[in-house]
Design a protein that fits this description.
With 436 residues, the chain is an alpha/beta fold. It has 2 domains: 212 residues, FAD/NAD(P)-binding domain (3-Layer(bba) Sandwich), CATH 3.50.50; 183 residues, Alpha-Beta Complex (Polyamine Oxidase, Chain A, domain 2). The protein contains 14 helices and 22 strands. Strands 7-17-18-19-16-20 form a 6-stranded mixed β-sheet. Strands 1-12-11-10-14 form a 5-stranded mixed β-sheet, with no helix packed on it. Strands 9-3-2-13-22 form a 5-stranded parallel β-sheet. A hairpin with a 2-residue loop joins strand 10 and strand 11. It starts with 5 loop residues before the first strand and ends with a helix. The relative contact order is 0.20. Keywords: Oxidoreductase.
């Protein structure tokens, strides 16, 4: 005998910060909902794991700054402790440059970025241009161009040859921090915040509940998942576009909506956490920050705490991550160690633990830190996804009006989407009550 499906008003798919924020917004408004998460944990691209020393560390999204108001407010409300990232001392550029040359090269690369952002995203003269093609047209010194490439591929974890120029400009304009995005990290881990938010949801949150099919019609949806079947008035798909495109919709989504889901590609990143007995680089007047111009997308910085926890994080982003992930575990560790030794000296080989998280082709998030549009003609993709096709709605950090690809953006996107869903529910209920 087949059991009756569970019924609710809203189903949210995905318990990253977008889904969690939307769920809490609905809960505060008294809306009945269920939140489904395919993983056995919440947080999405924010994750904490234990390293080889048994220390709890952020293996996913970690950093924030004071210009991210929603995230800052949440952390304060939940009693989290911010650790200020150590930045005092010399920044190391690889291959080695003098301090004066390094500063000049950095400023020149930022000038390229400022020049790029001065272009309107809808300027017809850049239609069809990739970031790489535009960069080739610039007359800046090659060292500045190399630094710009490394910075952008490190931030967006995607090859410049794949990024439409208009899309990068549009994204960059929404990232409005005036202080470094590496300003702080959370002593208790960023993931501990996701866990705190999840506890407020009680049994409305279902883990290990991968959605297998979404049936939809006017004013109703029916979701089959590994945890059972749920019927609702509406569904909010709160996962990255690449993952949303993999869901099975019945009937298929409208052509424009399906196309808008299909023009995205996830970034590729490997996050490496390296523990040392002491922060030796600080003793040598170094900040621990290293950028490799000859290996675009490779970047390191200090994530040590004041309790004797001395550590560097190394980000491997974009095409470099795709190459290095093929090396295998031992060779990847050897490569990372060798690069740190070249940049910081022989003490960089005195590692007491090295752990890493390969986010490339992740089963439930596609990759990291976010998805990017890779079709230069898809200028209406975001607007189409944000419009959705009732009763199906979409939200993700990538679609946020502020800080796309960041935890801050996910929080904002989730709250906006929840309010939109609530408004449509109230309108539908009012219409039904009036008998029209």
């Amino acid at each position: 005998m087949t059991s009756e499906p569970e019924r609710t008003d809203v189903v949210i798919v995905g318990a990253g910060f977008t889904g969690l924020s939307a769920a809490l917004e609905l809960k505060a408004a008294g809306i009945d909902f269920v939140l489904l998460e395919a993983r056995d944990r919440v947080g999405g691209r924010v994750e904490a794991t234990s390293n080889g020393l048994g220390e709890r560390v952020d293996s996913g999204g970690q950093f924030l700054c004071e210009d991210m108001p929603e995230l800052m407010a949440l952390l304060q409300a939940r009693g989290k402790t911010l650790v200020e990232t150590f930045v005092d001392g010399e920044f190391v550029s690889q291959p080695i440059l003098s301090a004066r040359e390094a500063e000049r090269t950095y400023l020149a690369s930022m000038a390229i970025r400022d020049r790029m952002n001065a272009i309107a995203p809808d300027d017809p003269t850049i239609a069809g241009l990739t970031v790489a093609a535009w960069l080739d047209l610039q007359s800046d010194p090659e060292a500045a161009k190399a630094a710009f490439r490394s910075m952008i591929e490190g931030l967006w974890c995607q090859a410049l040859e794949k990024m439409p120029l208009w899309h990068l400009i549009d994204n960059d304009r929404r990232i409005t921090n005036e202080v470094s995005e590496l300003q702080y990290f959370v002593r208790e881990t960023m993931h501990s915040l996701a866990d705190d938010l999840a506890r407020d949801l009680g049994d409305r949150l279902r883990l290990s509940a991968a959605v297998t099919v979404i049936e939809h019609g006017p004013g109703r949806v029916r979701l089959a998942s590994t945890a059972g079947t749920i019927e609702a008035r509406t569904v909010l798909i709160a996962v990255p576009p690449v993952m949303a495109a993999k869901l099975d919709f019945s009937p298929p989504l409208p052509a424009a909506l399906a196309r808008s889901l299909g023009v995205w590609e996830s970034g590729a990143v490997i996050k490496v956490l390296v523990r040392y007995p002491t922060a030796f680089w600080r003793d040598h007047g170094l900040s621990g920050m290293v950028m490799w111009r000859d290996l675009p997308g490779l970047f390191a910085c200090d994530v040590g705490k004041d309790d004797g926890h001395s550590a560097l994080v190394v980000f491997i982003g974009g095409p470099l991550a795709l190459r290095w992930r093929e090396l295998g575990d031992a060779a990847l560790r050897t490569e990372v160690t060798a690069r740190l030794v070249e940049a910081l000296g022989t003490e960089a080989a005195d590692i007491i633990d090295l752990s890493y998280r390969d986010w490339t082709n992740d089963r439930w998030s596609g990759g990291a830190y976010g998805d990017l549009i890779v079709d230069a003609t898809a200028t209406d993709a975001e607007r189409t996804l944000l419009a959705g096709a009732a009763p199906i709605h979409f939200a993700s950090s990538e679609l946020s009006p502020s800080f796309p690809g960041y935890v801050e953006g996910a929080i904002v996107a989730g709250r906006i989407a929840a309010r939109k869903v609530m408004a449509q529910l109230q309108s539908a209920i009012a219409t039904s009550a009036s008998g029209s």
